[in-house]
Amino acid sequence: MKPSKDYVPILYLNKLFFTLLFFVFLGYLFLVESSLAQDNLRKAEKSFRDWSVFISKEEPKMCFIASQSIKGEAFRNNQKLSSVNREKGTLYIVKIINKDGEYEGTFYAGYPLQVGSKAILEIDNKEKIVFFAHPSPTAKAEKDHAWAQKFDQKKLITYLKKGSKAVMSAISHRNTVTKDTFMLTGFSDALSELEKRCKLN
Asked: 16-197 has which fold?
């Protein structure tokens, strides 16, 4: 199923071609992931406080940990909205098969994101990782997700291991700003369990 993982890091300002190539690849990958996640969020292999481990039982093999937001807020014109029609935000860390210690971070917003927009994950009010929405989405999974860049993946894992809370700020296709709060308790244990359980054989 999987195309090559050796894609070129995104450089948004002057390498549009590689940006599009990157997102076409990730869109394909996370169409599968999104389907697995929605089907299996009730079937975690094991949970560690706020984070759960998921291993697909069928091909193509997909392994990841996930956590749903404990609080979701929405703002329009700097005014907090009393309610919005959306699912809970979910943060995924997907293990790259056959590569020890390599992961991919993605955010499921629960609504269509503004095309090509940035989503900012802030850990403990000090460290930040930028996620990007798809620049030309067609499938629903492409519209609802944002992805961290390849060269930020190691920093993302390091920050999440050390942190206690992370807040994802994103922009919907209707220009609504959302903020999803994720707790990081159990993240390191879930990641260690993922490494133990995610084996090809």
From this structure: Immunoglobulin-like (2.60.40)
